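Section 5.1 Outputs to date
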Amino acid sequence: MTLHSDVAELLAGAGILDVDVDDAVADEHVRWSAYRRVVLMTASSRSRDRDRAIVATILRDPIEIVSKSAVVALVDRVAMKVTGPGEFWQWSAELLPEIDELKTEGYRKFIRRRIHDWLFHLSIEDGHVPTPVELAKVSDWMQRFLAEEATSLAVLALLAESGRRRKTRNIAKNRARSRKLRTQ
């Protein structure tokens, strides 16, 4: 397969007709924008059946930062849509063979870490209260995300005490204090 046929297939499969395939092939910025739209359409689908093939196609892009970014966007979107950690784990496990085809080890690690972060987040949404050791294994990005979005006072207290960054700890402290005031 060629980049031209890959981009054309992705756009057609997502029903995106207003992107010039030749422009997308010639300019990685246009291609990234096209991939972003494909990811949005893919993530909004009820079916996850085509996701692995879409990821494999995107990851054939010769500019790995473009393809890595598109796959991370898909991971993020699907993680926000699934019903729990089990569903997300099953979905992400199907993608790992494709992700492992990336040449750049740092990109493979980044995507795997993002998947781990979302599994952590989804387990918290499912009622799990993590330990400081578990919290230390997630990225600064996820700790900050949790500090800004978590509703559990126990999770906010953990972040306020054990968050890696001062800003994360402060956000968690302020949100925990605010939530306590609202419940009184």
